[in-house]
Amino acid sequence: MTRGTTTSIRLELGLSEKLERAAHNLHRGKNWIISEAVRTYLEQLENPGLVQEARRQSLLVSKEQDPDTDLWEINNDQEGWKS
């Protein structure tokens, strides 16, 4: 087992409940989910081009499948996305 350090965080009640459900559904510990989330977030910060490329590819695919993609571009949720 990999050794680590202990960190304490305070979560909003709703977020804590979602974490509990996710841990139960995935049969994983909350620690594993939090570690994976932090790891993924930090990788995105280190590679901002990946976020831009993912968005570009998403737009390309949506344009191939639906001629009304302007609606997708107008109504999409980009909360948390860095460009």
A few lines on this structure:
The chain is an all-alpha fold and 83 residues long. It contains 4 helices and no strands. The protein has one domain (13-75).
Biggest beta-sheet profile: none
* Spatial shape: elongated
Span between termini: 37 Å
SSE string, helix = H, strand = E?
Answer: HHHH
Structural class: mainly alpha
The percent of residues in helical segments reads 55-70%
- How many whole angstroms does the radius of gyration measure? 17 Å
Number of strands: 0
Plain-language structure description:
With 83 residues, this protein is mainly alpha-helical. Helix content is 67%, strand content 0%. The chain has helices spanning 13-26, 30-46, 48-65, 69-75.
Any key phrases for this structure?
83 residues
